[in-house]
Amino acid sequence: MSVIEANNLTKRFGNLVAVDHVSFSVKEGEIFGFLGPNGAGKTTTINMLTTLLNPTEGSAKVGGFDVEKQDGKVRGIVGLVPQDITVDDDLTGMENMMLQAKLYHVPTEVARERIKEALSLVALTDAANRRVETYSGGMRKRLELAEGLIHYPKVLFLDEPTLGLDVQTRVVMWDYIRNLRDKHKITMFLTTHYMEEADVLCDRIAIIDHGKIVALDTPQNLKDSLGGDIIELEFNRKKDDQTETLKLLPQVKDVKKIGDTYRIKVSKGEKTLPSIMENLLKMNLRMNKVSLVKPTLDQVYLEYTGRSLRETQGETGEVWRRMITLRRIRG
Amino acid sequence: MIKETIALTKREVKKWVKNPFLLFMMLIQPVIWLGLFGKAFNLSGLVSVPPEVLQQYPGLDVALNQMISNTFGGTTDYFTYMAAGMLSVIVLFTAMFSGMSVVWDRRFGFLNKLLVAPIPRESIVLSKVGSSVIRGMFQVLLVFSIAFAFGLKPGNAFGILDLFGVLAALFLLSLGLSSMFLAITMRIKSHETVIAVANLLNLPLMFASNALFPIKQMPEWLQTIANFNPISYAGNAVRAFILHSNAGFDAAKVALDFQFLIVFALIFSLVGILIARTGLRKG
To answer: Which of A123, A146, B115, B234 has the highest CB neighbour number within 10 Å of its CB?
Structure first.
């Protein structure tokens, strides 16, 4: 069953087409990632799916409700962990959570239990009664995440959940997010421009660029679509060119010789490597160097979005908020 | 809707209570006005009659004081006159800040969080207006006490009921002005613009009213403006209550002031709510 369904979803701001006829569906319990450079249309998509913006064209359903016509219903079942840090500095962690509970009509008694649970999940129990002003950036992000969970949403939207966090905190956040899916079966839609994050967290990834989805598949399939892994090897005897010999081996797709190194393209490198080595040894070709290079999502991403760095354009307000967010994260 | 409004109002009030410095800063201006301007301007001193003239025209000083008292709504003490008007001005200043807070919430993304939540849009505006009114009333009481300490002279029949009358008039003024500023700033995205708008409205609203000077002494065009200014009506009512003396209390006039204030408050809270429905969205 699909929890999110987007059909030709489009958003125009004047002449700029931020999201351009995007269609996809997200299954229940899935972690679905939107990967793309800044300004690709990730946040705009989230804004439409969470009813903050109305689509210019096309439609989307979340939990079976139309985001435009049944926006009230949609708001009741989604949670949003925004890119900006929106927890209130002047209130304590507990007060922030309680306010969120009130906004989602969670009865006070139930809210107390859930807040306890959510805060311990994000390891903020000890800091609950401190003012958020004193929190570090990672703590604020975690509180933000906990707030998104207070009403047990059916779908949780995470907009750049680890933007600006240090490596350790990022890994901890990933654990929390996976934990949530496994324990509460929450469907998650997240945006990121960190390849590693998409690779580690997501069941499926859509690569979005210039408002369009350019690729959509599991991380593994996306990597495979590049044509497989590369085995790099060097022979003991460097004089003879073995390119043709290698090409004749069954699993080999392509061979390139760069200097003394042969780059052999294969699929499922871990499995092919041993048999290739066996074959070569049988032919009495001894190797002094072998390595396996796995394609990364980085390569996939660059393949689809192009290599050049692009200037992104943004509204002044957005740029300002991003600046403030980063400043607040860095405390 | 009421529950959400209360929860959000609590947030605003908590933010305010936890920032005593801000509270202090907001009080400085009215207190300076009272202390420097109100105290420096001595009405009776202005028309003090030299003894030799008084000998020639006995009773002249009494007559002059009576004239001043008539012009200044029943007092010869400018400080008392102005302190009463200042209470309305404080309400104006506080209301301005309610507009600022929407811009802050928008900039920090807090507004988005509210917009994603399954709550009626109206509760967002109502909480802003509500907290602004609470702040305004608190500051009114504080400044009123300070004015007392500085030598405000209420009428000889001034009692607790008159105090409630003062608060009721200012409550209506605060409701209307806060809604008005919120309606204006709801779609504005930068602080600079809000500050510019607030300054643009702030001084004219203050001077084109009876807060500092009696309307009767103004040029005619200014009188016209002042006669539409809600601050004048609140000023009238507040002054009537504070100067409540045994000599009399013009209940009919105060009733008219209240009518105007009620209509003003109603219209602008409705406008605020209507604008919240369409104007409170992302981007």
So the answer is: B234
